[in-house]
Design a protein that fits this description.
This is C4-dicarboxylate transporter/malic acid transport protein. By secondary structure, the chain is mainly α. Helices cover about 65% and strands about 5% of the residues. The radius of gyration is 24 Å and the shape is globular.
Length: about 425
């Protein structure tokens, strides 16, 4: 959610055709994203404070662990937006903010490397995945590295009067962007192999296919942006005695050609991902999941990449194409945000055995709440089969069954009612999905 909102703010900042109010709209998304980030951070902190075991469970869960880097990516998008909207607005008094963003850029680079490497190490040490389970979400731990390039391009543009600092940021941005993209490229191979051997993912997982668009998109906007700034900040002896100016111009040209190469790749993955949704739209078999935000965030990268290519080639047609992408993305963001609120209201997400909170891949909850649910289900099964089993009321004060006349059986856990039918449906859905895989 926060990544997508920050991505929309980034896209609006890059729109070449400006009109009164566009900057204000971008600022709204930027500030709203900060509010969402603070809200999410507060809620997740309260969760870990009141239920400490969930912190370890989040690291070991086969699905949730892949999304841990989302917190770092959200920080990266906020820093990018600050460099865009904050540095533009602060004018002559921006020196302190510019110096602060220069330091925070390198701090973020360190966090991105630590988290991307750390999450992969945890996954490789605790999880066993098969090719049939492969989705582009496996790329997600690389994403903190992928937003470094666009941030470096934006920040270096504001640091042109400090040429040495700008040059350091461009070189660092190129290195870290290369790490993220090359890691993503290797995972691309696994994704293509999975598609060739296992067909398309399940309908509920197909929005995640758009994650494959992001690595190329962010790399294009980062590389082309840094290439445009490089000739203005290099010294005369950069890359060799007396060839600094030539090296800067050659690097600028090379970045555009490399960007065009990747732009084609990003467009290809976009078309494949969009085409994979035809059967879902036709049969109306998709239900909301948080992966729906994959319709927004990776495609904001494609849109900003389109604007970067349009600027480099001075192409009006490509600019218009990017503007069309922008309009579509804003409407998609609005639709997904409304659907998310509706899903929370109807307990389709943030609910036991729903979406990312379900048990899967051999991972089991170890909390008292999960144990109480299992005990009550076992008692009900025994009673339905006519077997004398454990009395549900003997499960203790922590978990007590609550069944009224004509009501759906529920389990009361620490004062909270858990719909058992919802739990059963969640397990049935999981088993059906596993059989499809």
């Amino acid at each position: 959610m926060t990544m997508a909102t920050g991505g929309v703010a980034n896209t609006l900042y890059q729109v070449p055709y400006r009109f009164p109010g566009l900057y204000a709209i971008g600022c709204f998304f930027f500030l709203f994203n900060i509010c969402l980030f603070v809200f999410n951070l507060t809620m997740i902190s309260l969760r870990f404070y009141h239920h400490p075991s969930t912190f370890k469970n989040s690291l070991l869960h086969p699905t949730e662990s892949l999304f841990i880097p989302a917190s770092i990516i959200s920080i990266g998008t906020i820093l990018l937006n600050v460099s865009q909207y904050g540095l533009d607005y602060s004018g002559d008094s921006r020196a302190w903010l510019l110096s602060t963003m220069n330091v925070l850029f390198w701090v973020y680079c360190g966090l991105a490397v630590i988290f991307s490497a750390g999450i992969y190490l945890i996954l490789w040490s605790t999880q066993t995945f098969t090719v049939a389970q492969m989705t582009p979400v496996w790329i997600f731990p690389c994403y903190p590295l992928l937003v470094i390039g666009p941030h470096a391009a934006t920040l270096a543009k504001h640091l042109m009067n400090r040429s040495l600092s700008a040059l350091h940021i461009i070189v660092g941005g190129f290195v870290f962007q290369g790490i993220g993209f090359l890691l993503s490229l290797m995972i691309y191979a696994s994704f293509i192999y999975r598609l060739m051997t296992q067909k398309l993912p399940q309908e509920t997982l197909r929005p995640g296919m758009f994650v494959s668009v992001g690595p190329s998109g962010f790399t294009i906007s980062g590389i082309v942006g840094m290439g445009n700034t490089l000739p203005n900040v290099v010294g005369k002896d950069f890359m060799g005695e007396g060839i600094g100016e030539l090296a800067g111009q050659v690097s600028k040209i090379a970045s555009v050609w490399f960007g065009l190469w990747l732009w084609g790749l990003a467009m290809w993955f976009f078309l494949v991902s969009a085409g994979a949704h035809w059967s879902c739209v036709r049969d109306r078999r998709m239900t909301f999941a948080m992966t729906f935000y994959s319709y927004v965030f990776p495609n904001t990268a494609l849109t900003t990449a389109t604007f970067a290519i349009a600027k480099a080639l001075n192409s009006r047609v490509i600019r218009i194409l990017g503007c069309a992408f922008t309009i579509i993305i804003i409407f998609i963001w609005l639709g997904v945000f409304v659907m998310m609120i509706r899903a929370v209201k109807h307990k389709d997400i943030l609910w036991p055995q729903k979406q990312e909170d379900r048990e899967e891949g051999g991972w089991k909850k170890t909390s008292d709440e999960a144990k109480a649910c299992l005990d009550l289900r076992r008692c009900q099964t025994e009673q339905e089969e006519g077997v004398t089993g454990t009395d549900p009321t003997s499960l203790g004060t922590y978990a007590t069954p609550t069944v009224g006349p004509g009501e759906t059986p529920t389990l009361k856990v620490n004062g909270s009612l858990i719909d058992q039918e919802t739990n059963v449906r969640g397990r049935a859905e999981k088993q059906r999905n596993d059989s499809m895989v």
